[in-house]
Amino acid sequence: MKKSILVLSLVIMVVGVSFAGITLNASEVDSVLFMVEEEKLARDVYLTLYDKWGLITFSNIARSEQRHVDAVKYIIEKYGLEDPTIDEIGVFKNEELQALYTQLVETGSKSLVDAIKIGLLIEELDIKDLKERIEATDNGDIITVFNLLMDGSENHFRAFYSLLQRFSTEDYTPQYITIEEMQEILSGTNERGGMGHRPF
């Protein structure tokens, strides 16, 4: 937990440094505003599935997702963007994310194993979207924060994969990343927080 707080504090210090004349282009603005809602999507789904199934990992990772949201909000604040997040669970400005939330919760409410698979799906989607947006920018703030978020998402993926092995004999086939990318993530170690329960 202390490591997570330290990492977030470092992000605040780095992103909080202002440099005159630095602005975000339209694509970068879209990326930041989309990712803050996608991170909130993950948090909201996990909170809802925790209420449904009582599995503590959902609650722990939801807290981590809140730190992800906060980290992106520092970029929003620094560059004077309008924060699109709505302070209500399951409510989003982005219509695609609104529909996705409903779909994910519906599927994850069918069984505990389905809920764990939804966790895996969310994290691989997050990894894909973060990677694409990192590659599309040269802005240091975005690269720094999104790389940290991607480390956290890989931790979450490993945590959910371990749960799937615990509660089911089924294997998992990724939808948004390749099998090779999944194996690379699973062969890695938790970057922050230990055991995937309280990563950044």
From TrEMBL:
Residues 28-187 form the DUF2202 domain. InterPro entries: DUF2202, Ferritin-like, Ferritin-like_SF. Pfam families: DUF2202. Coiled coil: none annotated. It comes from the Bacteria. Gene3D superfamilies: 1.20.1260.10. This is DUF2202 domain-containing protein. The lineage of its organism: Bacteria, Thermotogati, Thermotogota, Thermotogae, Kosmotogales.
